[in-house]
Amino acid sequence: MIKRTIFLLHKYNNTIINFSPTINSEFYKNKKSKDSFVVGQSEELSKIFTEEDVKKFSEITLDNNPIHLDKSAAESAGFKNKIVHGVLSMGLISAIIGTKLPGNGCIYMGQKISFLRPIFVNTKVTAKATILKIREDKPWIFTMGTYCFVNNEKVIDGQATVMVPW
């Protein structure tokens, strides 16, 4: 186990907070060096979101919009089937960023998203994250393209800001 002391500036009253997390050395085991990242580098992850996945997500988030849970409601709204929550699909992007590229220890700082087309329940979704820019002044800050595809058609388009701890 490794213990690091981090001092944080409290946002509201400008006081210093001593934050000393105990970090398992496993955290650092798979950590990559900054030289292992290049613009254009990508990772992908695919998943079929089932009705059960959508139902669980709906229960956890309290988003029980009928277009996600009831086929007739989805059809009444102009869809051919129940649709997967867009944010559930974006969870694949979070998985890529947190486990593959950049990977362990990175911080997902921000995201701009456009939902271009619906993703229907029981459809294979492929998420992709690509390094678009590594800041020269702060090389630990990446801009990443974030995308989801169904049958090679882009259904989600976005851009994330990610911090990589060295």
Note the gap between the termini.
18 Å
Secondary-structure-derived class: alpha+beta
Beta-strand level of the residues, as a percent range? 35-45%
Largest sheet: 5 strands, antiparallel
Question: What would the principal axes of the Cα set say about the shape?
Answer: elongated
Number of separate helices? 5
Strand order of the largest sheet: 5-7-8-9-6
Helix content: 10-25%
Radius of gyration: 19 Å
Mean pLDDT figure: 85
Low-confidence stretches: 1-12, 17-25
SSE string, helices as H and strands as E: EEEEHEHHHHEEEE
Oligomer kind: single chain
- The count of β-strands is 9
Topology:
Layout: E1 2-3, E2 6-9, E3 16-19, E4 22-23, H1 26-29, E5 42-48, H2 51-61, H3 66-69, H4 71-76, H5 86-99, E6 107-115, E7 124-134, E8 141-150, E9 153-163
Antiparallel strand pairs: 1-4, 2-3, 5-7, 6-9, 7-8, 8-9
Account of the protein in words:
The structure is a single chain. With 166 residues, the protein is of the alpha+beta class. Helix content is 23%, strand content 36%. The protein has five helices and nine strands. The protein has helices at residues 26-29, 51-61, 66-69, 71-76, 86-99; strands at 2-3, 6-9, 16-19, 22-23, 42-48, 107-115, 124-134, 141-150, 153-163. A five-stranded antiparallel beta sheet has the order 5-7-8-9-6, with helices on one face. The longest helix is centred in the middle third of the chain and has 14 residues, at 86-99. Mean pLDDT is 85; it is low at 1-12 and 17-25.
